[in-house]
Amino acid sequence: MIDYQPVLLANIGKKDSHALAVYEAGGGYRTLKKVLGGTSPADVAAAVRASGLRGRGGAGFATGLKWSFIPDRYSGQIYMCVNADESEPGTFCNRVLMELDPHQVLEGIILSCFATAADTAYIYLRCEYPLAYKRLQAAIGECRAAGYLGENILGSGFSLEIHIHRGAAAYVCGEETGLIESIEGKRACPRIKPPFPAVEGLFGKPTIVNNIETLACVTHIMTRGVDWFRSMGTPSDPKNPRDPGSYGPKIFGISGHVNKPGYYEAPLGITTRELINDFGGGVWKGRRAKAAVPGGISTGLLTEAEFDLPLDFTGPIKAGCLGLGTGCMVVLDETYPIIDFLHNSCRFFNHESCGQCTPCREGTRWALELVQRIRAGRGRILDLDLLLEIADGIGIIPGTTICGLADGAAWPIKMAIRKFRDELEEYIKQTNPDGYASTEPALATAQ
Amino acid sequence: MSTTERILTDEILDAVREFFPRYPTRRAVVLPALHVINERLGYVPEQAVVELGELLELPPPEIQDTLSFYGFFKQDEPRGKLRVWVCRSISCSARGGEEMLEYLCRKLGIKPGQTTPDGRLSIEYAECLGACDYAPAMLAGDTLHKNLTREKIDAFVDSLE
Q: Domain limits at B63?
């Protein structure tokens, strides 16, 4: 069993953990008072940079580096956008933080706005989280009353307003420029970059977009120090100069075919097997696992044989996955058909493509069409190759789309077919014994 | 047009105006305003878009452009009083979510996207409710129904009567 005392989840589990009084009784806002009482914004930013904190929302971009892209000596308006759109299938850790510990979230936002000189923060919250909305609203009200928000916070001269901006059920709003477009009141079609948001973002101003859990980490870095943060996780690989390491605690989610679905905190770098067995109570019904989605459906699949790789920012990539993603894992047992995973994933991305880039709009559509055909008993072995051709051709990685949504659509296809080809071929042969080997063009079907 | 034909009541207009100080542009008020209208009316008819355009000093097509992107807002007719989303994403689906959606639909005699004839409830599928730890899950209004079973759906439908 992993020997670890939770930090991000320390307050959660207490009665009324969402209330200001409970958060303060556990030491909440002490760090904010300390920082505003004498630490410079530059020192906060330097600590975050030195900590090696990387974004918890999926991409793992270095937070301090992102902050440093705000132009030097810029003295105009700066915005903070807090990404609480958590829409990646299989992911729910931000929900837990917002519902059960909204003040931890707010303290992280206030400190991060102080460090980046942002005077307005928008929390982009998905509309599927009504309880999080209620709790955050109440917490913002408590903060204002306590003087942690508003004009001249705690007499420091620093002023900040935090507003909640509710989304409307569109996955692409989790992409940072899609999110910005959505706040501006437009269709959430991601922007071509550069310019990056830190230079020209919301309303044309420098903007930092960070995930909820990332910002929650900032408080703990300022409370416990950079060395504490770097004492956990996987150090950078000396043989890989481009690996900045994976430091700090992470909230891992686990769902799907396990005995104890839930959320658990551990240092980055625990393994899938530890997460399933030590935290998830093992695979349900006494079965074995067939595969696991490491961190949201877009990251792809790990096979059971790959369960000993570390869950840090590079571990899943070693198994061909898109990345660690959100750290919220979905476990699939040995009886679960991979064709169902493929269908679920293709249906989702076809539904969520914003439509502005042709490879994504058409690719996700045709991938779903092919998978539906296979499930309808008219699949051909050739269709698996067609699916791979689509998957290899859409996304930022092949360089054909503006945002990474298409990479997220492609990865589950690549992982399912490259890792479970035998099973899929067998499925096609059994469901289409007369036609599986056909290479004749097949007619499209109506959805 | 006479004022009696207006769809957006003074209460709605005031609720939308409350968002003005939060944003430097009127356009940014579009999404919050659509939520306000949708909460009150159960949908956002074209006439509401026109009237919102007057309030925000925006051409209605700009608002329509935004609205049509988000599947959340319905335009042709009001949704049921209670909006029910049944999650069909990977975690829920792997634990029987799609069967739960089918079961609920069969019980009420409607399909996903439809509203019961009495206008009481509409059912939709959701693309991940972010409640994977409670899969299969369903959001009915603001209430999350966790670890769905047929029995729980039966009880939910009974509670509507």
A: 3-67
Question: Is the minimum CB–CB distance between B32 and chain A shorter than 8 Å?
Answer: yes
Low-confidence ranges of chain A (pLDDT < 70): 1, 443-447
**From the DSSP assignment, how many helices (H) and strands (E) are in chain B?**
7, 4
Q: Which residues contact A212 (CB under 8 A, 6 or more apart)?
A: A56, A57, A82, A83, A84, A86, A94, A97, A98, A105
Which domains, from first to last, does chain A contain? 20-231 (3.40.50.11540), 248-333 (3.10.20.600), 338-431 (1.20.1440.230)
One domain for residues B10 and B43: yes
Give the C-alpha separation, B138 to B131, whole Å: 9
What residues have CB less than 8 Å from B32, skipping those under 6 apart? A165, A166, B16, B19, B22
Q: Does B73 fall in a domain?
A: no
Residue A381: burial class (beta carbons within 10 Å; 0-12, 13-18, 19+)? middle
Pairing status of strand A120-125 against strand A79-84:
parallel
DSSP for residue A310: B
Tell me the pLDDT of chain B (161 aa) as tens digits: 445 589 999 999 999 999 999 999 999 999 999 999 999 999 999 999 999 999 999 999 999 999 999 989 999 989 999 999 999 999 999 999 999 999 999 999 999 999 999 999 999 999 999 999 999 999 999 999 999 999 999 999 999 87
Q: Are residues B57 and B31 in the same domain?
A: yes
Mutation target among B27, B55, B69 for the A interface, most CBs of A within 10 A: B69
Task: Domain count for chain B, please give it.
Answer: 2
Do A274 and A251 contact (CB within 8 A), yes or no?
A: no
- Quick check: B90 and A257 CB within 8 A? no
Cβ pair B89:A297 closer than 8 A: yes
Q: Does the beta carbon of A259 lie under 8 angstroms from any beta carbon of chain B?
A: no
Answer whether B85's CB lies under 8 Å from B124's CB.
yes
Q: Is the dihedral of CA B3, B8, B14, B16 positive or negative?
A: negative
In the three-class reduction of DSSP (H, G, I as helix; E, B as strand; rest coil), residue B79 is classed as coil
What pTM was computed for the model? 0.96
> What's residue A446's pLDDT?
46
CB of B131 less than 8 A from some CB of A: yes
Strands A302-303, A289-293: pairing is: antiparallel
Interacting residues of A415 by C-beta distance below 8 A, sequence separation 6+: A300, A301, A320, A321
Spatial CB neighbours of A238, under 8 Å, sequence gap ≥ 6: none
> Rounded to the nearest 5°, which phi and psi values hold at A283?
-70, 140
Residue B77 counted as domain residue: no
Picking from A128, A203, A116, A125, the residue whose alpha carbon sits closest to that of residue A164 is: A125
Closest by Cα among A443, A175, B36, A82 to B44: B36
CB nearest A185 (choices: B28, B71, B135):
B28
Residue showing tokens 């539906």: A372
Beta carbons of A79 and A6 less than 8 angstroms apart: no
- What's the pLDDT score for residue A133? 98
Q: Among B18, B39, B67, identify where a domain stops.
A: B67
Residue A246, φ and ψ in degrees, nearest 5: -130, 95
